[in-house]
Queue: 4 jobs
Job 1
Amino acid sequence: MTRTQIALAILALATGGFAIGVTEFAIMGLQREIVLDLGVSYGQGGMLVTAYALGVVVGAPVLSLMGAKRERKAYALFLLVLFIGAHLLSFLAPNFETLIAGRFLSGLPHGAYFATAALMGAQMAGPAKRGRAIAVVLSGLAIANVSGVPGVTWVGQQFGWRWMFVIVALLAGLTMLAVAFLAPRQQPPAGASVRGELRALANQRLWVGVALSVIGFSGMFAIYTYLSHVAVEVTGLSDQALPLVVLIFGSGMVIGTFTGGWLADKSVLGTAIIAMAAVAVFMVLFGLLAHIPALMLILLFCVGVSAANLGPTMQTHLIDTAPKAPQLAASFHHSAFNTANAMGAIAGGMTIDAGWGLRAPAYVGAAAAALGVLITIYAIWLAKRAGAKI
C-alpha cells in the first residue's frame, strides 16, 4: 500500500471512532433533557452513562475473543452492524428501562471495534509509527467531542434527544461504506486462537496496565458526567452555552490524543506519568475555581488535553504487555476506559447525593489521578525488571 492509501484506510477506521465518540459523550450533554422528559432523577440519568460503560466492559473482551481468529476488516464491519441495531432500539425505546437496555447493547461492540481498528492501523503503519497510527484511530473519539457532540447536543436540545441515536446510526452506516472501500483485508497473526489469547493473560504487567487505565480515566469521568450541572449551577452559564463547554473540552481531547500518540512513540510510560500528574493538578484547580467562567473553561481544556494523552499511551502499553494476545489486550484498554467511565459517574453521583456539592467530583478525580501516578511508577519498575522498553 502507498502512504496515501494507508492514511485513507486509517482515517476510514477513525470514522467509526467518531460515531462511537458521539454516542458515548453526547448523552452527557443531553442528560438534562432526558431527565426532564422521562421524569427520572439526576442519579438515574447518570445510569445512562454507566449502562453504556458496562456494555463496553462486558463486550470488549467477549467480542474480541470471538474475533481473535477472524479476518479483521470483515469483523470490524460486523461490529458496526451490531452498533447500528442497538441505536435503533434506543431511538424507539418506549420507556427509561428500554433506553437503559439500548445503551448497554450499544456499548457491547465499542471495545472490540477499537481493538480491531487499532491493530489494523498499527500493522499498516509499522513499528516506528504505530503510536501515531493508534492515535489517529482513537482521534475519531476525541474529534467527536469537538464537532459531533456539540452539534448533536444542539440538535437534541432543539428537536428532541432521541434524534441523537438516529444521527449516530447514520454515522456508523457511513463508516461501514468507508471501511468496506478503503481498508485492506488483514488476517490475524498466524496461529492466533482463543486459547492462545487466554493463556497470554497470565501477565502481571498487563493487569497493572489495566488498573492504571481504570484509575487514570475515572477522575476525568467524575467531573465530565456532571459537567452540564457544574457549568449551569456552579459556573452560572446558560443551557445554551453547554455546546460551547463541550466543544472546549473536546478540543483539549483532540490535541491530547495526537500529542499522546507522538509522545508514546518516544516513551510510553514516561508519557503516562506526566499526563497523570497533570490531570491531578488540573482537577484540583478546576474544583477550586469552577465558579469563575473563564478559569473554569481554561482548566476544563487542560483536563481534556492531559487526560487524552493517556488514550494512545495506554492502548500502546497494553499491546506491549501481551504481544501474544494483541486482540484481547487491545480491547482491555476500552474495558478499562469504560470501567472508569462507570466508576467516575457513580463516584461523582455519590458525592453529589451525599451533599458535598457539585465541586466534589473534581477532588475525587484528583485523588484518583494521584493514585494513578503511583501505579505508573510501579508499572515502570515492572517494565525495567522485564527488560522492556519504557
Job 2
Amino acid sequence: MLKNIFTLVLLTLVGVACTSQEQQKETADSGAVGKLKISDDGRYFTKENGDPFFWLGDTGWLLFGKLNREDAELYLENRREKGFNVIQVMVLHSVGAVNAYGDTALVNKNVATPKVTEGNSFSDSTQYDYWDHMDYIVDLAAEKGLYMAMVPVWGTNVKEGHVNQAQGETYAAWLADRYKDRPNIIWLNGGDIRGTDSLEVWLRMGTTLREKDKNHLITFHPRGRTTSSVWFHNEDWLDFNMFQSGHRNYAQDTTAGELHYGEDNWRFIVGDMKLTPPKPTLDGEPSYEMIPQGLHNPENPYWGASDVRRYGYWSVFAGGAGYTYGHNTVMQMLQSTDEGSAFGGKGVWDDAIDHPGAMQMVHLKTLMLSRPYFERVPDQTLVAKQPGDKYDYQIATRGKDYAFIYTYNGKNISVNMGKIEGDNVKASWFNPKKGTFTELEETFPNKGVVEFNPPGEPRDGNDWVLVLDSK
C-alpha cells in the first residue's frame, strides 16, 4: 500500500520528540557520570543504576595538547549542549607532547617518566604542569556529564620504537593509578594502529590497565578499516570492541590486510556480533565531516553531514552500542595561528563545532532512547524488498513493540509486517536532520507486506527512519 506524503500530519504531543534546543539540552544533561558497565546480554552499555547508556562520541583528539582552560570550557560545553556524552582524546599525540601553556608531558620523551611537579596551582607556573592541565579538563568534563575516552599514547609512537614493553607497562600503571578513581574515564588502548604492529606492547598495556584499574571500561582503537576484535576479542582486558570504518569511499577501499567493506560500516557490526563471548561494538572513527574522501588529497570531494548521519544510523541499526562523530577541523583543534593543517583541514575549530553534522548527531541518540533500549535487536527480515546495495541499502532494528528502518536516499520501504507485537501498528517518519516525528494518519494491520513512501523525492541524503509502533 503506497502512502503519499500528503497524508502526513505532524505530531505535537509533548515527549514524542525533542525538537527544541531546550529539550535537546535536557537530553544531554540527563544523568551524572559514574561507573559504566556492560548489559546482561553483552551488547550494550549501561549505567551502574541500570539505565541505558548510548555512546555518542566526538573526536577531540588534540584537546589536551592544544586548548587552554577557556577554550576547553567552550568546547566541552558545546558538546554537552549538543548531546554528546563521550570525548575521544589522545593523552599523548607524540612523546614530545607540549600543551597550550608550553608544558612538556615527559622527561626525555620517555613515557615511563612523566614530567610532574609538586602542587597544581594554576597561578604558579612552576606547579601547573601538563598532567595538572589534563586533570583540570577531565574534571571539567565530569562536571558536564562527559566521559573522556583516552588513548594513552598514539600508535605511531609505539610503531616507530619510542615505546617498548617495559616503558608501556610502567606508563600504563602510572596512568591507571592517577585516573582510576575519577568517575568519567574510558581507556582506548592503541590509537589508529593494527594490533599486529607492536602486539606485545599493546597486550602489556591492556593487561596493566586492567590490573591497576578495575573501575573503567577498556577497548582498542584500531587502524582504518579494521576492528579490535581481530586481535583482542578474547582478551580479558577488552570490555568492548571498536572499529574504524575510516575515511575512504567505495572505490578507494583497496589496501591489502584490511576488511574491504567500503563505506558499509554496518558490516563490521555484523561480523563482531557473531563472535563469542558477546561484547558491545561501535564505529569509533567513521568518515569525518569536512575531510577529503580518501583522507590525504584535498582535491577530492569532502564528506558532509549526510554522510556522518548515514554512518551513524547504519552502524547503530546493525546493532552498534553507540557511534562516534568526527570533524576534520575539530579533531585537530585547528586554529588561525596554526601553520597549515593536516588532511586538508579548513577553518577553525571554534566555528566548526557548530557545523550541521555535529548539530544532528543528538537526534540519533534521542531516537534510540525513545523506545525500550535493551530489547533492541537488528532484524533485516523486516525489509521485504531490499532496493539495492551501497547507498540504496536499507537497514532495520526492532524491539518487542517497535521497529526502525533507515533509508539514506528516500526510496520506498517495503516492510514484512508481523515482526513486532500487536494486531495493528501506527507508523511515523523520523527526520534525522531535524529530530522530528511525523505520523501517518492511517493505522496498518500487522500482517502481510506494506510499502511506505518517504517524504520528498529519492536522492542521496534524503534520509528518513520509518518508525512502527504496536497499537
Job 3
Amino acid sequence: MALEDALELARCLRDLGGVEEAFRTFELLRREQVEKIVEYSRSIGQRKHAKNPVQVFFRDLMLPFFLKQANHQSPEWLYDYRVNWNDKVTV
C-alpha cells in the first residue's frame, strides 16, 4: 500500500495545481481501496481472536487447513491494484 500511495501522490503532485489540492485529490483516489483493506484486515483479525479454551483448541486444530485454502483463494483485488503513471489526474 505504501508504494501505491507514493505513486498516486506523485501523480497528484505532478498533475494538480497546488499541494493542498494534490493531497485532497489523493485522499479521494485512495479512500475506497484503503477502506476495503481496513475492513478485510478487521475481519481476519476477529477470526483469530479466540479466548475460550474450546475455541482456541479448534482454531489451532483447523489453522493448517485454512492456511492451505488461503493460498488457493487469494483475494486478487488486494494485490491487483494498478497505478497508470501515464494517466493524468483530474479533479
Job 4
Amino acid sequence: MKKTFTILSLCVYAASAQAQVQDSIAVQAPVYYEAEVDYQVEAVPVEAVQVYDAEADAVTDANGNLLDQLGYDFYATAEMDTIVKYRREIFPFVRAGFGNLSKDHQFAHSDFGYMRSTSFQWGFDVRQPFSKEKNLLGLRYGVSFSYNSVAPTDNRIFVVDGNKTVLDPAGRELRKGRTFFRNSYVEIPIALDFDFSTKTYNHANRKFVKNNKLNFGLGGYVGYNINSKQFLSYRDDVGNKVSEKVKGKWNVEDFNYGVMAYIGSRNTKIYAKYDLAPVFKNNDNDMRYWSLGLQLDLR
C-alpha cells in the first residue's frame, strides 16, 4: 500500500513540475506592441549638377590617341602603350659583293679580274633616331670586319720590290679561281640614315605593325689593317695541286678610310664603298679599293 501511494505521489509531483515549466516558458514569451509613428519629410533644395560631356571635352594627340583635357589620367593610361615611339636599334648586318682596285681614280682597264675580286663584310650596327616621334632621320654607326680580295690578271702575283709592292709574272701557271690577294680590316662605319619606314598600332591584334619603305644612307668609315695574305694555287711538275698562303706586311697602309652609301628597303639594300686612302705605300700609282654589292640588315 505504501509503495502504491509513493508511486502515485511521484506521478503527481512530476505532472505539477511539468506544468510549472510550461507556465514559465509562456511567461517569458516576447510581447509585441504596435505603435503609430508620424513620419515627416523635409524638402531640401537640390543644386544644379554639371554633366561632363566626354566626347565634347576630350582631345587627341597627333596619332589620334584619346587624352583627358581635365587632368584625369585614365585616358592617358589606357592609351600609353599604344603610342608609336621609335627607339635605338642594335642589329647585325652582312655585306657581300664584287670589288676591285682603281689606279689613280681610274676604274677602267683594271689589272684585276672584275668577277673574281670580291668583298665581304659583317658586323653590328646601331641605329639611333634623332626623334622618338619620327623615324625619318637617324645616325647609324657600329663595328665590323671587312675582307677585300683582288685577283690579278695575266698570271701575275704581288711581289715586294724595296718599299713598293708591284705585280710580276708568277713563273708558273696559276689556278685563277684560287689565286688572290686579301686585306682584312676592323672598321668603324658611321652614316646619316634616312628611313621612311613607319609603324602603326593594330588595335584588333594589339601589336605594332612595321611598314617597310625606302631606306638610304650616306657616310664613311675608318679601319685598321689586321691581316694581309696572298693565296697561290697551282699544279706542280707531277700534277699535284699545291696551295700556298703567304702572310706579310706587303707595304700595306695600316689605316684605311673612305666613303660609303646604301639604298633599298629596311632590310635589303645595295651598297657602294670607296677607299680614299691608297692600299699600298710608296707606289708610283695609288691603288684604292672599291666595292659594290648587296647589304642585309638582320633586324
